[in-house]
Amino acid sequence: MNPKEILSKEISGKVGDKISEQTISEKVNQFVRHGNVFLLFEVMSLRKEIERLKEEIQNQRNSERRKSVQAVPVP
User: Fold this and answer.
1) Threshold 0.70, pTM exceeds
2) I need a surface site. Which of 2, 45, 58, 74 has the fewest CB within 10 A?
3) Which residues contact 73 (CB under 8 A, 6 or more apart)?
4) Which pLDDT score, from 0 to 100, does residue 35 have?
5) 3-state DSSP call for residue 66?
């Protein structure tokens, strides 16, 4: 078994229920071809996704705060 197959099977075992076999195969091929550059772009992509999720969470918290402030009866 070659390293690409080993890596593909390992990734499939961990995230195969969330990502298709084709996507996993494409990502493994990109990694094997481009190595460190591929990893750099993946890290940058993940950072953008993390920032987007942080903003989404913050917006939800702000929305909940506004709702709770509006729900408090004024005597």
Assistant:
1) no
2) 74
3) none
4) 85
5) helix
